[in-house]
Design brief:
elongated; Rhopdopsin 7-helix transmembrane proteins; three-stranded antiparallel beta sheet; single chain; alpha+beta; transmembrane helix
Length: 487
């Protein structure tokens, strides 16, 4: 804490040892006011108070004191002249009459001379939202105060302790899904196309991400804020931001038809996707730094930045999804079009569910002020965090399920109409094994060898005599939608 307006007040939720026991015994707020030797006048002092929010501000004021000039709450020569306090209380904060007696928790309110070093230990006996406020006797006095909150359970903040359980739950969910998906991958490893390899890497990365995130919070809780834990946390945040960005990039590619409609979404679309991904990565890292170092101004900027970039990224993805669905419908590739329709619905329903949870969460506190939402909401923040992570898992798992490896997944992905090179269109060359020219309704994609016959396939719809029907059994690729023939 320091002499700036933002730095003169610190508030946060703290669990008592009764609610969250641990190796540290009691939860405490430790204050150190160092001795100041530079330009200190004999009568210079700091006013310091430690209290639970509802014992003072929440019971007697409409808004937090951070919205007011702190000098109005300090007993000094001006407030003494106005009759708000007595001479013997000079240098302390002004508490309403009877507030000290009616308080449910201890209130420390004292005058600290700048020429003295003072250490204070405040024991938290009840879970609550605690504040430390300071004010100098003169605005030209630079000072700082060290505030160290030690929870009974360890070095994490009360608002962060839920992350241990949340990360563990996500590890179990991703591991269970990944095991099933990997079983199909190795079972059909000779019939894999490139996008399925990306999904494999993505699932592995998500498992590693949550293991590292769990290790990070465990280390912080055990060792506290040290140089080594800070370096490790930054490395984990970079990796986690990269994985999150990579997953959205894969989603953008899939929604633009990569691996299902085409092997090349085009240079412009690919560049735009990567630029959106880069911007998203930068915004995620900015948010991580602001939260880690409690930079309030940077936190506000990063929150707005993430909102704008994420919204833009999803609009870009949604536009690609709409165009891909239209192109599949125009080509009469009904089964693929239905798959993309289901993907569109699940993404939409997930977003709607997330916003519904947010509305319900904040509706609980509709009768309270914005200050009280912060004061009361910190204990339930883990619900929003877990729901958001789970809904993101649903989207990732759906894409992985739709594009899971099967015995005919490669044939399904590239089941396009034949044309010749003279048409001047981008074409795909895939070897066809066991092809019978008299039975064009059935073919198998086989492994490459010297005896394979080459056929050329394109995404252009054919009319008239050129039309060839390629029959792919939908149940071979998935049961997500009802079976339809692909024409």
């Amino acid at each position: 804490m320091d002499s700036s307006l933002a730095g003169s007040v610190y508030c946060g939720g703290i669990y008592s040892a009764n609610d969250k026991p641990g190796p540290n015994g009691n939860s405490t707020i430790n204050i150190n006011v160092p001795k100041f030797d530079f330009n200190v006048r004999p009568n210079d002092y700091i006013s310091l108070a430690i209290f639970e929010y509802n014992d003072w501000i929440g019971s007697f004021y409409e808004h937090s004191i951070v919205h007011y000039d702190l000098d109005k709450f300090v007993c000094n020569e001006y407030t003494i002249a106005q009759g708000k306090c007595n001479m013997e209380d000079e240098g302390t904060f002004i508490f309403p009459r009877g507030s000290l007696e009616s308080a449910k928790n201890q209130i420390i309110n004292q005058k600290v001379p700048l020429g003295d070093e003072v250490n204070i230990e405040y024991v938290v006996k009840n879970t609550g939202f605690y504040c430390v406020v300071t004010s100098a006797s003169s605005s030209d006095i630079p000072y700082w105060v060290v505030v160290d909150i030690i929870s009974a359970f360890g070095g994490l903040l009360a608002s962060e302790i839920h992350l241990i359980n949340n990360y563990f739950i996500m590890i179990m969910i991703y591991a269970a899904f990944s095991i099933g998906w990997l079983h199909n991958y190795f079972k059909h490893r000779h019939d894999i196309f490139e996008l399925q390899r990306y999904i494999l890497y993505l699932l592995i990365a998500f498992n590693i991400k949550y293991v590292l995130l769990l290790a990070d919070v465990k280390f912080q809780n055990h060792y506290g804020q040290t140089v080594s834990t800070t370096i490790f946390a930054m490395a984990v945040n970079i990796f986690a931001s990269f994985v999150q960005t990579f997953s959205l990039l894969i989603l953008a590619f899939v929604c633009h038809g990569y691996g299902i409609l085409t092997l090349d979404i085009g240079v412009k679309k690919e560049l735009r996707s990567k630029l959106w991904a880069l911007a998203y990565f930068v915004s995620q890292m900015t948010a991580s730094i602001s939260v880690r170092y409690n930079q309030n101004t940077l936190m506000i900027i990063s929150s707005v930045l993430i909102l704008v970039i994420t919204t833009g990224f999803y609009i870009f993805i949604a536009m690609g999804l709409k165009k891909t669905r239209k192109e599949l419908a125009d080509r009469k590739q009904n089964y693929k079009s239905t798959l993309y329709l289901n993907l569109h619905r699940v993404v939409l329903y997930s977003l709607m569910t997330y916003f519904l949870v947010m509305v319900v969460y904040f509706a609980i506190y509709m009768s309270k002020s914005s200050e009280n939402i912060i004061v009361s909401g910190w204990k339930g923040a883990w619900i929003v965090d877990l729901v958001g992570r789970f809904l993101f898992f649903i989207n990732v798992s759906l894409i992985a399920y739709i594009l899971r490896p099967t015995s005919k997944s490669r044939q399904f992905a590239m089941s396009l109409e034949p044309i010749t090179e003279e048409d001047g269109l981008h074409v795909f060359n895939y070897p066809v094994d066991n092809y019978d020219s008299n039975e064009e309704d059935n073919f198998e994609i086989g492994e490459e060898d010297a005896h394979h016959e080459q056929r050329t396939w394109s995404s252009r719809p054919i009319t008239g005599q050129e039309n060839v029907h390629h029959h792919v059994e939908p149940e071979e690729f998935g049961e997500f939608v009802e079976s339809k023939d692909i024409h």
